[in-house]
Amino acid sequence: MTRIAGVVVFKAKPGLGEEAAKRIAAALPAVEAEAGTTLWLVLHSNASADTIYLVDLFDSEGSLNAHMTGSAASQIFATVPELLAAEPELHPSTVIASKPAA
Fold first, then answer.
1. What are the ABM domain coordinates in residue numbering (predicted)?
2. CATH code for residues 4-94
3. Is-above-0.90 flag for pTM?
4. Domain residues of the chain, as ranges?
């Protein structure tokens, strides 16, 4: 089971959550080229329209490091910050339990 994860919380300026989510999601092609990123989700909150969660899983610490210095992260951090009300909150995480995707 993959145990290395990351969660990033983006808080957009009022009314800009949908645009911020679209810009984050635009990095999907770059993520798809990353062999070690096993799961990558962009979640636009239904409870808070200006909050976006990015959740990813990696097959190794090296894959996490490659992802954080790769083209997807570069694209996100080049296009999204102008829409944000605060700095993104990065939460390196460890998976405790999971159910495999279907």
1. 7-74
2. 3.30.70.100
3. yes
4. 4-94
